[in-house]
Amino acid sequence: xxxxGTMLQGPRPRxxxxxxxxxxxxxxSGTLLAINLLEQEDVEVxxxxxxxxxxxxxxxxxxxxxxxxxxVRAGNMSAFPDRPxxxxxxxxxxxxxxxxxxxxxxxxxxxxxxxxxxxMEKYGRRLQLIDDEVLDIEERHGKVTLGLVNxxxxxxxxxxxxxxxxxxxxxxxxxxxxxxxxRYVGDxxxxxxxxxxxxxxxxLVVGTGLTAIDVxxxxxxxxxxxxxxxxxxRGLRPHRHVDGLAPVRPVLAKPAPxxxxxxxxxxxxxxxxxxxxxxxxxxxxxxxxxxxxDADKRARFLRHLxxxxxxxxxxxxxEVADRIDGLIRDRRLVFRAGKIDDVVSEPDSVAVxxxxxxxxxxxxxxxxxxxxCTGPQGDLLRATDPLxxxxxxxxxxxxxxxxxxxDIDRDGHVINRDGRPAEHILAIxxxxxxxxxxxxxVPDIRTQVSALARRLVNAHWTGGEGL
Length: 467
Prior knowledge:
The protein is an alpha/beta fold.
C-alpha cells in the first residue's frame, strides 16, 4: 500500500462551530486541547483515555525517575503560547526555580495534571473524563460516533485523534529470533528494565537518541551496574545544552533555498556563533521550510540528514549529559555505530552479530537483554493499536507519503483512503509530523493545539474560505 500524498479529492470540509468535541488520548496534546476548548464558552469536551495512569501527562511526563529531566528549559515549557510564564509561575508558587533550569519530567507531569484539575474545577460541568478505549469511529448524520469498549456509543460534533506516538517497531533480525520477554524488551516504557540482571552481564540498547538516553539512566538508577552498549547505524548521540549563551535571534525568512541545505547553512552560521544558537534561530520557520519542500526533498532529508539534525536540535539538559559522560568514563557505557545482521537466542544469553559502520566483517556481542530504543514510530501500516488498525481497514485514515504518521490536510482533518479529508475527524500531536515535521516538542504542540481549538470553536468556512 503506497500513498503519494500529493492530491486531495473534492472540496475541503466546511468548518462549523463545534459544541461537543471528543478527544481521543489524554496525554500532553489531548489534555492541552481540552483545556483550550474549555476556555471557550458553551463547548462540551469528552476527554477519553484508556490508561488512567497517563491521564493528563501521557507517556513522556508520567516518569517518576527524578533523573529524567526536560529537554527544554523550564522557561519555555508553558502549556499556553499566550501565557509564556505559566509554568514558571507554577514553579515559583511551590518554591521551585525556573531561570535557565531544566525541571524533571515528573514535575512537569504534576503541572499538567494540576492544570487539568483546575480546569475540571472551573469548567467541570462541560468536561467529562472517560476512562475507556475507543475501538471504532463513524461519521454519520453530520456527527461522529465513537464506539467504546465498556461504554457503548458516544456522539460528538468532532473527534480529535491525540494518540501520541506509536511504540517502536522491532528490528527485523530481533523480531525473527524468538526471544523471550525477559531477553527482549520491545517497548521500553511498558515493563521494568533492570529486573533480574546481574553485575557481570551486558545490556544492548538499540538506538542512541533521546529514548536510549532515558533507558540508560533508568537502568543505572534501578541498580544495574553491568555494561550497557548503545548501538545505532551512525552511533550519534544527542548533544548537550550549554548555559550562558547569548539570546537566540530568530530567523524569520528562509535562510537556505532548500530543506537539504539547512545543515550546511547551520555549519556556516556556527562559525560566527555557537551552533546551538544557529540551530535554535530557525525554529520559527522549520515548519515553513518543510511545507515548501516536495516529497522527494523531504525523503532525502530524512534519509541523509535527519540523524545529524536530531542530535543537534533535540539536546540534553547539562545534568543528564554529565551523567552519561560519567557512565562512559566509568566504562559502564559505550556507544557503537553499526548494523545488526543477526540475533540468536542462546541458553544463557543472546548472541548479536553486528557490523561496525564502514567495515565488512561481522562481530559478535553476547548480551543478557536487548532493549528497543529506536524511538517512537509513525508507520500506520505496522501499527498494532486496535483503533488505528480499525480506521485503516475502514479507509477512514491513511499514512502520509513518508510513513511518519497520519495524513492530514492543512487544517488538521485526517485524509481517508480515497484522498478526501474527513468532515468530523481531526488529528493533533506527533502523529501529524508528516505535515508539520517539527511537532514533537512542547513549544510546537502548544501552538498547534491553540490554533485548532480556535478553529473548532470560532471559525466558520463559507464558500471554501476560512476566517
